[in-house]
Each structure stands twice: as C-alpha cells, then as structure tokens.
Amino acid sequence: MKLYVFLLGRPGCGKSEVWRNLKEFFEKENIAHSFSRVDDFPILNSWKEEDFKRNIFTHFKPTPDGGFKVIDEGVWDELLRRLNEKIKKIDVDILAIEFARKNYTSSLRNFSPDVISKSIIVYIDAPFEVCWKRNVERVKKLREQGIDAHFVSKKEMEETYLYDDKEDLIREYKDRVFVIKNNEETTKEDLKREVYKIVKKVKEFL
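-> structure tokens emitted (206 positions)
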C-alpha cells in the first residue's frame, strides 16, 4: 500500500530532519524501500519568477530585504492543487508532502480523497521565534556557499505563519495526526524517539 506522509509546520520547524529520521526507520523496520519527498516551493518559485519576468505583480511583489511577498491569497490553494496533480505521477512506497500554512484543515482539502485516505499527518511544533532564527541561519549558511537561497522576510513569516490551526487539525484528522515538539531544548535523540513512535503506529496503520 502506498503511504503519503504530510510534513506540516512553520518554515524552520525541522521538517527535513524529521523526514530523514522517518526514512531511516522505515527502511530499518522494512516498512518500505522506495521514497520521495516533494514540497510546493519549486512550484511557487517558478510561478513567481515567470510573473516577474513578465512584469506581472498581481500574485507576488518583491520586498526590500531580498525576499518576496504573496499578495494574492488564492496562490496558496492553487499551489497545493498543482502539487496534488504532481504527486499522482510519483510511483514510490512512501511519499512525503511538505508545506507550511496557517490554515491546514482547509489546505488539506486541496488534495484528492484518495491521497488523504492513504496518509498520515506529522505536525512539527516549533515556536515562531525559534523557526525564524533557524531560517536566518540556514539562508546565511547557504549564501556563504554561493547558493541563492530563498529568504522569507520576518514580516511575511509573521503574517503567514505566526498562528495556525493546529488544534483544529488534530480535531478533524484525529488519529492520523502526530505532533512532534521541536524547540530549542529538543535534542536529536529526543526527536528520534518521537519519530520512532510514529513509525510504530504506521506499522499498525499499514
């Protein structure tokens, strides 16, 4: 059976590390052998670049700090609808789908029922200021390596990710939702232990 793993949480919450641990345990437990991971940023970036080349500023606008701001709220749902079409073409045992929103319950409705019925949801719970600090450090490190890293301004992050509907998400999706805390006190071993709890539940789910 194919399994979709939604990795949700603010930019900088630690989705990449959680996925690395999940993948490692899935392989060790012989749950799956083929994996892939997708997110909506490549779609967003391509759309933004195409608009800017054509001097279209109805969906996005540049910001003084080198980032950009989404000014059309409809962009967020359209990105996920496009992502939903993309994942149908990916043939692997376990596919991770990563994105960040303030309204996860409505955002997940952009995916087909067939995808949702075969999914679990992992919400990585990290405080906003911790996520902001991690993002700044990540972008700085990548740019030092000569990589043109995407930068989200703090104002944009506050407007888009300061609050979300985690509690509604848990109520609506119940036993499909797993919450992992990843704050400044969380160690790598703490994170691995929490991830392994999810893997044990997935074995029951499958």
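The first strand starts at residue 3 and ends at 8.
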